[in-house]
């Protein structure tokens, strides 16, 4: 049975949802009802106007003002934080309850569950260890001192030898220089003596010559 | 290239992608601007309303759940912003079913419209109360069904139809007068 109500048919027509029977009834109503037909005509006119509607061109408007950049969430607002906190807490509880232990030795990390943490050495062991270390240290020092003393002694001997050699060498040199000076002095004395004797001889010769000249004159 | 769906653009815009938001605006700005012209009667007010609408849409973008079409959601916000627009203009006037919210005289901006029919129609629509104008706008220009309009305006389908019939009766007379 077709709904003949004008409002219903008009609504269906506007929604473009008329069935074949409703379309027939709608068209019949358009013919018989003048007011209905006028309403349909106005609606059609509006539909056409809507399709052909022209407006002024789009003005330049500030689109940037419509964009409000969302704030970047802070690291403590990260949604995974509660889950990570929960997981860390659970892990900590497991570690405590299971006797988790961790040991760092010689650049190695050892981890384990259900192990008691190994106890440290006793006081006596520590004392013995310290005594051993001190003994080793003393021996090492002793050896080093001995070596140092030997080195010093050897260095001292070398220095003494060098000094004696130097003294001997320097004495010889001085003596040699003294003798040279003595020889030079003697030579100079000899030269002086020779010159003296030469002069004496020359003087004597002159006297002899003079005596010869006098004798000649007397004889003549 | 394939155009991205509205939902994809919304998702990217919510992550701070400005380009996606501008693409979404570009898709709907003409329709919203024309809506603004028909609802306010002047290009200047229409531009203000358009900006107002898109700001409101962006602020509420995270509330869009994708139950219906983005277009329907957009026009619902547009309707509320339009009511707010008139409330700011005339704070003491009740909005729904008010006859006083019509613009009796064409503004100078009407002459900017190139088409006489569009000009007449815009002028005639300004004489309608805002509530009836909104129904005409959504039905004939937004191409929404009565059910969709009822949902957008928060009314019953029968009330929407009743307002439409009243608006059509008034428009019929006004358009006859306009066309002489």
Structure commentary:
The complex is a heterodimer of chains A (220) and B (180). Chain A has 220 residues and is mainly alpha-helical. Chain A has a domain at 6-52. Chain A contains five helices and two strands; from the N terminus they run ααααββα. Chain A has a two-stranded antiparallel ribbon with strand order 1-2. In chain A, a hairpin with a 2-residue loop joins β1 and β2 (108-112). In chain B, 68% of the residues lie in helices and 0% in strands. Chain B has a single domain (6-178), classed as RNA polymerase sigma factor, region 2, helix turn helix motif (Rna Polymerase Sigma Factor, Chain: A). The chains are: A mainly alpha (220), B mainly alpha (180). The interface between A and B is large, with 31 and 44 residues.
Q: CATH class of chain B, anyone?
A: Mainly Alpha
Structural category of chain B is: mainly alpha
Tell me how many strands of chain B there are: 0
* Secondary-structure arrangement, i.e. CATH architecture of chain B: Orthogonal Bundle
Low-confidence stretches of chain B: 97-106, 108-112
What number of domains of chain B?
Answer: 1
Overall pLDDT metric of chain A: 86
Characterize the biggest β-sheet of chain A: 2 strands, antiparallel
The value of Rg of chain A in angstroms is 70 Å
Order of helical and strand elements of chain B: HHHHHHHH
């Amino acid at each position: 049975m077709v709904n003949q109500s004008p409002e219903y048919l008009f609504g269906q027509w506007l929604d473009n949802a008329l069935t074949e029977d409703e379309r027939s009834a709608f068209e019949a109503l358009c013919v018989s009802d003048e007011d209905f037909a006028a309403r349909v005509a106005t609606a059609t006119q509006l539909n056409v106007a809507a399709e052909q509607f022209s407006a002024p061109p789009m003005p330049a408007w500030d689109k940037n003002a419509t964009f409000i950049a969302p704030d970047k969430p802070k690291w403590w607002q990260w949604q995974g934080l509660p889950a990570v906190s929960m997981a860390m807490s659970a892990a900590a509880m497991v570690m405590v309850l299971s006797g988790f232990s961790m040991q760092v030795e010689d650049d190695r990390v050892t981890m384990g569950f259900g192990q008691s943490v190994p106890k440290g050495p006793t006081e006596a062991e520590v004392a013995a260890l310290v005594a051993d270390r001190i003994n080793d240290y003393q021996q090492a020092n002793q050896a080093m001192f001995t070596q140092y003393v030997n080195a010093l002694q050897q260095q001292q001997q070398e220095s003494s030898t060098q000094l004696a050699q130097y003294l001997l060498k320097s004495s010889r040199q001085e003596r040699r220089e003294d003798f040279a000076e003595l020889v030079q002095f003697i030579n100079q004395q000899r030269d002086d003596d020779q010159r003296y004797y030469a002069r004496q001889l020359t003087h004597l010769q002159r006297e002899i010559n003079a005596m010869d000249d006098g004798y000649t004159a007397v004889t003549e | 290239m394939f155009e991205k769906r509205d939902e994809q653009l919304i998702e990217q815009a919510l992550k701070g992608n400005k380009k996606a938001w501008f693409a979404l605006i570009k898709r709907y700005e003409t329709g919203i601007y024309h809506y603004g012209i028909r609802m306010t009667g002047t290009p200047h007010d229409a531009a203000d309303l358009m900006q107002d609408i898109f700001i409101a849409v962006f602020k509420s973008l995270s509330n869009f759940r994708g139950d219906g079409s983005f277009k329907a959601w957009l026009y619902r916000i547009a309707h509320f912003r339009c009511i707010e627009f008139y409330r700011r203009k005339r704070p003491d006037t009740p909005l729904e079913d008010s006859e006083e919210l019509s613009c009796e005289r064409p503004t100078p901006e009407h002459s900017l419209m190139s088409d006489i029919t569009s000009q007449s129609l815009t002028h005639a629509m300004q004489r309608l109360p805002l509530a009836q104008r909104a129904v005409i706008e959504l039905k004939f220009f937004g191409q929404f069904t009565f059910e969709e309009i009822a949902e957008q305006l928060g009314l019953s389908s029968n009330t929407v139809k009743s307002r439409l019939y009243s608006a059509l009766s008034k428009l019929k007379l006004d358009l006859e007068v306009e066309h002489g």
